[in-house]
């Protein structure tokens, strides 16, 4: 029989559940009110479980989760329990677990699956995308920076944008979360470093953080984290992301899954404002795969 899939949330935001089919919501008593609103939004029932309170023992919480899992074989449920610690890894806004019989197994998150795809298919990705840099994005800030300005590029990928940025006189720190792309860039004769935007420090300060076709792989909570880190690292931020509703898995070109989160303009502007960014320019661009936002934001 299929195991239950439990999504543990540190808070009761439905933003982390895009694309999920939820059977029920469970919560500790302290989170009952926000979890109730989440359950209403999802159109499912809420059950409050006292044993999930953070002051209770790991043993009691584990037993309560096992009981939930037994009731929902083959289904996905949400558990809202801030501070819950089962000894399954570092606390995150969203953790997905299954019970294997011997204990809890943490499932790879959407971003981890996406990174694994790029790790396996870096060469195929280079062959599938245009070789030209994204000059539409670069032109948004080119008049603001002087030659010699420093740029942190998140998700350098094949290196196509970094070359154009350097041609215009900027000093670029090429980074990527995948070893395959870092090695590809080094093989082309450039310096590159591994940097995971979700877990690593950005360093700096820089004049600009640049991220072309990277932020679409983050859910709302993850993007909020990245935007806050970028705000500490630079005064300007230039990025692209997909326009649309919800989230999807795409196998386009690579025959391997990549998770994509889409945005509408107002929620995206609201998240930027929440993380202390003001939008200088927002442009839309149509491509074969859909509409994109090209955004230049300023700290403050």
UniProtKB/TrEMBL annotation:
The record's listing under SUPFAM superfamilies reads: S-adenosyl-L-methionine-dependent methyltransferases
Instruction: Please name the source species.
Output: Kribbella alba
InterPro entries recorded: Methyltransf_11 (IPR013216), SAM-dependent_MTases_sf (IPR029063)
Q: What is this protein called?
A: Methyltransferase type 11 domain-containing protein
Q: Where is the signal peptide?
A: none
Which Pfam families does the UniProt record give? Methyltransf_11 (PF08241)
Domain named Methyltransferase type is located at 152-223
Top-level taxonomic group: Bacteria
């Amino acid at each position: 029989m299929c195991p239950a899939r439990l999504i543990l949330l540190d808070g009761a935001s439905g933003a982390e559940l895009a694309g999920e089919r939820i059977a029920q919501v469970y919560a500790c008593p302290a989170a009952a009110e926000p979890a109730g609103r989440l359950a209403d939004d999802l159109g499912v029932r809420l059950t409050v479980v006292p044993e999930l309170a953070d002051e209770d023992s790991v043993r009691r919480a584990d037993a309560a989760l096992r009981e939930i899992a037994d009731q929902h074989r083959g289904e996905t449920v949400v558990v809202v329990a801030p501070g819950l610690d089962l000894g399954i890894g570092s606390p995150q806004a969203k953790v997905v677990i299954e019970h294997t019989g011997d204990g809890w197994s943490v499932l790879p998150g959407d971003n981890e699956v996406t990174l694994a795809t790029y790790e396996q298919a870096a060469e195929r990705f280079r062959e599938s995308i245009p070789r030209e840099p994204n000059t539409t994005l670069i032109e948004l800030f080119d008049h603001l920076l002087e030659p010699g300005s420093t740029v942190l590029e998140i998700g350098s990928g094949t290196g196509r944008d970094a070359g154009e940025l350097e041609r215009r006189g900027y000093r670029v720190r090429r980074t990527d979360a995948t070893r395959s792309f870092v090695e590809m860039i080094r093989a082309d004769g450039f310096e590159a470093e591994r940097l995971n935007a979700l877990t690593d420090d950005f360093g700096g300060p820089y004049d600009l953080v640049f991220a072309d076709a990277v932020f679409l792989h983050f859910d709302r909570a993850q993007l909020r984290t990245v935007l806050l880190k970028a705000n500490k690292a630079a005064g300007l931020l230039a990025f692209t992301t997909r326009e649309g509703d919800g989230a999807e898995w795409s196998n386009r070109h690579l025959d391997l899954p990549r998770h994509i989160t889409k945005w509408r303009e107002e929620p995206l502007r609201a998240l930027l404002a929440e993380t202390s960014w003001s939008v200088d320019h927002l442009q839309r661009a149509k491509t074969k795969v859909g509409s994109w936002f090209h955004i230049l934001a300023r700290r403050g």
